Fold:
Amino acid sequence: MDTASVLMEVLKIYSPPHGEAELAKWLHAFLKSHVDDVWIDEAGNVLAVKGRGAPVVWLHAHMDTVPGPLPVRYENGVVWGRGAVDDKGPLVAYMKAFLEAEPRGTLVLALVTAEEDDSAGTQALLQGGPPRPNHVYVGEPTSLHVAYAYRGGAKVYIELESRGGHASSPIYGNIVEELYALYQEVKKRLGHAERYDSFTVTPTVVQCGEAPNKVPTRCVMVLDVRIPPGKTCKDLLSTLPPQAKAKGCTEPAEAPPTNPAARALTRALLRLGVEPKLSRKWGTADFNLLIQLTRNIAAFGPGDPA
Structure:
């Protein structure tokens, strides 16, 4: 398997969240030419199995990328394109590992949908599908660090309405100012700070106004809130002001850094002459969900997450 060539082909297929069907079809055909037990499930995940019996090891990566196509090119040994780092680089690496491995037990390759949105693919796998794992490796760009913890996260929506009016006489106030004040209030209540062990509050969407000379009648702001270890979705929900509503909250997750999956990666890196490094991730990933299946879990993959 020529890894760079396969990665180039995968990058050429645009696959935003819930738009992975074309890529899933390509990956299914590619895997089917090498192994027999391959299928696409109802959630659109591409699944493949090798071997049988215990232990059961999952190699898990996601097919979708953040929206926005980019040109694909190969220059000086570097592959460029949307998802080259997150997550098609790790996905192709895991696919290569799956195809070349001779498992003592059962090896499952799970290439899933919508990780960058609602994790619909992984949510479906939690309900059933391939053999249940004893160990899980989550393909994410970690600079080949062994990641054992992820912060939680939620999208917080602030929606305000007003009677509007002409901008020359804003006698009823202006919800733009109210919106900004509420954003500051959310930061204050959560104790926002640029630290791993603090809530972080980042505005990502602001929609406000109908005309340059009119006081807006409706404003919406979306805040990307990350939840630190030791805090929960309940802590977030109980702290928000009434005008702010959280959607799709995911709990933070941390596995023991010495769990068997992490230790196996550490030993393998030492054999390759690479200094093992442990990481806690600032973001949120399918790791946060898969830890429900086993705490023998680690995230690992090529690519600089910066």
Observations:
- The longest strand covers residues 152-161.
